[in-house]
Every structure is written in structure tokens, then in C-alpha cells.
Amino acid sequence: MADLPFVDEHVWSVAEPPDVVFARVERYVHAVWVRERRRGIEHLLGTRDPGGFHVAESVPGALLALEGAHRFSRYRLTFLLAADGAGTRVTARTHAAFPGVRGALYRGAVVGTGLHVVVTRRMLRLATVGG
User: What domain of life is recorded for the organism (predicted)?
Assistant: First the structure.
């Protein structure tokens, strides 16, 4: 899905090394977004992957890319990790396509309202906290 248009990116700093942060991000995405069962919203949207995403690319300590698709969109969320002083800078970068009229309406409802920003920042925070 390299052909997807850029949507946005968000950056978060964590006071731990990239390998520790990567392990957290990986655990989080597998527990919440990459899994076998569907929740209500994934069923309503008709996601191709039961949890909404699948892991498309993984470079331990550096990159974890998730991809997915549903009736209104194709999307990629990439977590990029880089050493930053004594910690790690984590960037969540979103690319997505919203084809057709329904896709445009969906983009307006999710991206246009700021909902995507709220959800992505929350994912970034939850994915990088200890636990």
C-alpha cells in the first residue's frame, strides 16, 4: 500500500531505549489492533482484518507498519522509532485513501472532524507506556 496519500503524523517522546519501546508498541498493537475476533465497529465497517489491521512490515527497534482496509478506506499506520538522546522518539505516520463518495464522506467524518487525531494520539500514548 505504498501508493496511499499522506494524512498526518504525530510524534511522542519516551525516556527509554528504542528496543524497550518497540516491544511495548508491538505488544499493544497485537493485543488491541491485530487479532482474531471482531468488535462491533470492525464488523460495521467491513474490515478485511478482524482487528482492523495486520502487520505489513516489522524492523525490531525501528519500525512497525500496520495496514488495513474496509468499505470506505485503505490505510497504513507506521510507527517509526529513533534514538533521541537518552530516550526514543516515536512517530506515528498515517497514509490512507478514501475512494468514492462514501470514502469522501467517511474521510470527512473521521479526518475532517479531528477524530483521527484524537485516536492516533491516544494509540501512540497507550502503545508506548509501560505495563
Answer: Bacteria
- Quick check: 19 and 37 in contact, CB under 8 A? no
Please report the DSSP string for 25-90 in residue order. HHHHHHHHTS-SS--HHHHHHT-SSTTS-EEEEEETTTEEEEEEEETTEEEEEEEEEEEETTEEEE
Domains of the chain: residue spans and CATH? 6-128 (3.30.530.20)
Instruction: Read off the pLDDT of residues 93-120 as tens digits, 9 standing for 90 and up.
Output: 999 999 999 999 999 999 999 999 999 9
Name which of 89, 63, 87, 98 is nearest 77 in CA terms: 63
**pTM, whole model, 2 decimals?**
0.89
